[in-house]
Amino acid sequence: MAAPALEDVAQALAELVQEALMRGESVYVPGIGTFSVEHHGSTTEQLPDGRLVLHPPRDVVCFTPEATSAEPEASH
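Structure tokens predicted for HU family DNA-binding protein (76 residues):
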């Protein structure tokens, strides 16, 4: 059995992350970082002509990269 292609692995990871985020879960990927969802409430904006526009609430996908050390590890 052949090893999966990098594109296949990336696609599978993307699908798993998307499904978890849709359930409201955060996803930690070792060596990469954490994907999460933040909820932004509705906002009102006044246009230059004086009209008010209501922007509905929305969920936003956020990514926090994994912290890395200041110096790369020496290879032996």
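The mean pLDDT is 89.
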